[in-house]
Amino acid sequence: MDTSQFAIAIMAAGKGTRLKSKRPKVLHEIGGRALLLHVIAAAKTVVPADQIYCIIGHEADRVRAAVAPTGVKFVLQEEQRGTGHALQMVKAYFALSGDRLPENLLVLSGDVPLIKPETIAAICELHLAEKAAMTILTAVPEDPTGYGRVLRATPDGPEVTAIVEQKSLLPHQLSTPEINSGIYCFRTRTLFEKLDLLDTNNTHGEFYLTDVAAMLVADGERVVAVKADSVDEVLGANTIAEMMHLDAAMRLATARRLMAAGVTIFRPETTVIDAEVTVAPDTVIEPYVQLLGATKIGSDSRIRSYSVIQSSQLGDNVTVRNGCILDGATVANGAILGPYAHLRPESKIGENAHVGNFVETKKVTLGKGSKANHLNYLGDAVIGDGVNVGAGAITCNYDGVHKHLTTIGDGVFVGSDSTLVAPVTIGAGAYIAAGSCITEDVPADALALGRTRQVTKPGWVAEKRAARATKKDC
Ligand code: UD1
Ligand code: CA
Known about the structure:
By secondary structure, the chain is an alpha/beta fold. Among the domains are: 232 residues, Spore Coat Polysaccharide Biosynthesis Protein SpsA, Chain A; 94 residues, UDP N-Acetylglucosamine Acyltransferase, domain 1 (3 Solenoid), CATH 2.160.10. It is built from eight helices and 39 strands. The strands form six sheets. Strands 13, 14, 16, 17, 19, 20, 22, 23, 25, 26, 28, 30, 33 and 36 form a 14-stranded parallel sheet that branches. An eleven-stranded parallel sheet has the order 12-15-18-21-24-27-29-31-34-37-39, covered by helices on one side. The longest helix has 21 residues. The chain is elongated. The structure holds uridine-diphosphate-N-acetylglucosamine and calcium ion. Calcium ion binds next to loops.
């Protein structure tokens, strides 16, 4: 298909009153990504970004900022007077901008996010093959309530006579099962002629884009409908409940895609996996795991229940035990985390390293085979290979104003409950005695003790006890 003949308009200016939310509808998220970003991603597989026109209006600045990195163009619809009015703005934009008028205009809805690239391509192709003025993507869902209905000229033919909105359905049309998906292809010039003739004589007092269908038919133009392969693909999201239905459908589809590629997911319906996540074969994901953002996981790893992994990269043979939280972390092959480890941004965990129970890391490099297994805070530190960080040891990285670096060489042994007051450097092979407060650099292979000596008073308690007993006798 010659895509230079097509441009895509995405209607995304509406407020989404039915959501009862402050956030503009198209910025609500499913599968971890704004509705509008899903639609733009699908559109970009068909035409380049500079042939995509995103119609924005309600909270336009916020919507623009959220999707600007995709490179699409923006058409402002300051007042939202209906889907027909939205397209009138596109017509005005072409007149003013001098952008080349495409022969055909594909219209997508910003709140119909599961549309597949193949389906978009299929309706464009059918539109050309049928030489239609308008091609409508339709579906027959279990419950068509709320959608516009597509009236066909004959039960089996592709020709359509009109689209009727739910509130305008006549009693005998109420049982019409076929819905309008809000996705269409138009011959641009023909559409633009008709847009000026729309009126607002309807229950919502809006300009309905859907009215164009009957107008074209009256002119003897060809209006055809094509059913989508799957109903889910064209479901709209007008309420939070509808959105969560789409969210579940999308995440299940992601889980199925991963399982088909060799990943084991126990109870996939309990996992929350974002669309961008990748997992290599033979990795096992236990129930109630969340994999979010651009997380990447290698092969033969195991992610145990209740772990939440956000935008992190994990290698092969990694074990994430129960209840870990990772955000922006990098974990090399063979590492073992948790249970209940918290890896904050820029935590880089080396090959076969261990980060154990209730350990928090931030902006840390932990070298190969190093271990921090119990109750540590490691922040702003570069830790070498083969280091053992004892239970309860911490880096004191913050002086109340600035953050400072702790450097720990290869093979260092940090005794339990030590505090390393940064900036400080511990040379390779050094030993830090348990309970030390280290404020000065320690040279390689040295032993550092930073604690007061123990005082032991033999018999002290017995004496006190005896004294108390005598007092009571008096
Ligand atoms: C629309 C269709 C309906 C179809 C349904 C499919 C019309 C009149 N009705 O109804 O036949 O079954 O979609 O989901 O088109 N928008 C603008 N500017 C506006 C108004 C809306 O950009 O002035 C955008 C919205 O942000 C949304 C899309 O257009 O992304 C559809 O608008 P919405 O109000 O949700 O239409 P529906 O009532 O769902
Ligand atoms: Ca809608």
